[in-house]
């Protein structure tokens, strides 16, 4: 049994087999001698396709998380409309006679570094949105298909190097049990989604070891721990704590949603 410590961003306890995901910008190569006019058309087409995808994600998120969290993808749409981002990509194409994929990578790196250089965590977290948007663009440019894919995995505890919003939505649809990342921020859009979707999640765990892939583990979103191959006593203890937590949530939700009390304007006291 091995314990890995992290920072909790979403409460709850979950069990599953560890599954690694590598989240980063898709690799691109610079191709010179391209026709700038053709590459700009390809770039604009990818932008239009990505905007449609972000709208789809917005509508999908409304159904599973609510309008407030769905606005994350409206914000990403606005970021894609940002003239500086678009102008940087187009200028790169024109100045280097290069391919649109490489131009997107250049624009993405510029804005990722810009946001990561800020002191405010909320602003730094926008770097994840840039990675998310740019990954969609590159995927459309290279394959013509969407970047987001719902993984066909069950009973999984996902460990990733990074969080991006579309990844969290995809994993939620796949009904993964828990999430953990090496690099993460509490105020990032991906973290907000994980909390809203009530997926037990940790950030800032140590660099993971590939030998853990496929091993059974538990994630404790209260104490901020991943327990690799927990013994029976530990599993039983964690299950009891999770059951108690579910009972408390159920009681609180019932009190809040009691329309008769609300109509009578009576105060509802919640005790946990």
Can you write the helix and strand succession as a string? EEEHHHHHHEHEHEEEHH
**Mean pLDDT reading:** 88
Strand order of the largest sheet: 1-8-7-3-4-5-6-2
The biggest beta sheet is recorded as: 8 strands, mixed
Give the distance, in angstroms, between the N- and C-terminal Cα atoms. 32 Å
The helix-and-strand class reads alpha/beta
Number of helices: 10
Question: How many beta-strand runs?
Answer: 8
Helical content stands at 40-55%
Strand content: 5-15%
Contiguous runs where pLDDT drops below 50 for at least 5 residues: none
- Which geometry do the CA atoms define? elongated
Measured on Cα atoms, how large is the radius of gyration? Answer: 21 Å
Explain what you see.
By secondary structure, the protein is of the alpha/beta class. It has 10 helices and 8 strands. Helix 1 packs antiparallel against helix 3 and helix 1 crosses helix 6. The chain has an 8-stranded mixed β-sheet with strand order 1-8-7-3-4-5-6-2. The longest helix has 30 residues, at 36-65. The mean pLDDT is 88. Helix content is 53%, strand content 14%. The chain has helices at residues 36-65, 67-81, 83-96, 100-116, 121-124, 126-143, 165-173, 189-196, 232-256, 259-263; strands at 2-5, 7-10, 13-21, 156-160, 178-181, 201-203, 216-220, 225-228. A hairpin with a 4-residue loop joins strand 7 (216-220) and strand 8.
């Amino acid at each position: 049994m091995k314990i890995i410590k992290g920072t909790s961003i979403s409460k709850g306890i979950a069990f599953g087999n560890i599954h690694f995901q590598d989240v980063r910008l898709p690799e691109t190569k610079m191709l010179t001698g391209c026709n700038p006019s053709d590459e700009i058309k390809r770039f604009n087409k990818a932008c239009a396709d990505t905007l449609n995808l972000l709208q789809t994600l917005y509508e999908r998120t409304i159904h599973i998380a609510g309008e407030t969290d769905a606005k994350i993808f409206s914000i990403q749409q606005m970021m894609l409309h940002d003239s500086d981002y678009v102008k940087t990509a187009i200028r790169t194409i024109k100045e280097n006679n290069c391919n649109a994929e490489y131009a997107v990578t250049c624009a993405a790196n510029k804005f990722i570094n810009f946001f990561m250089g800020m002191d405010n965590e909320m602003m730094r977290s926008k770097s994840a949105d840039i990675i998310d948007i740019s990954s969609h663009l590159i995927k459309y440019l290279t394959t013509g298909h969407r970047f987001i894919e719902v993984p066909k995995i069950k009973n999984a505890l996902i460990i990733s190097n990074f969080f991006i919003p579309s990844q969290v939505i995809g994993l939620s649809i796949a009904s993964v049990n828990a999430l953990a990342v090496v690099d993460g921020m509490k105020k990032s859009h991906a973290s907000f989604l994980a909390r809203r979707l009530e997926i037990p999640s940790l950030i800032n765990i140590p660099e993971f070891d590939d030998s853990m892939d496929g091993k059974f583990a538990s994630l404790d979103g209260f104490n901020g721990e991943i327990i690799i191959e927990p013994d029976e006593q530990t599993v039983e203890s964690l299950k009891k704590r999770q059951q108690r937590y579910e009972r408390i949530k159920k009681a609180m939700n019932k009190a809040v949603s009691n329309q008769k009390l609300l109509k009578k304007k009576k105060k509802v006291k919640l005790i946990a």
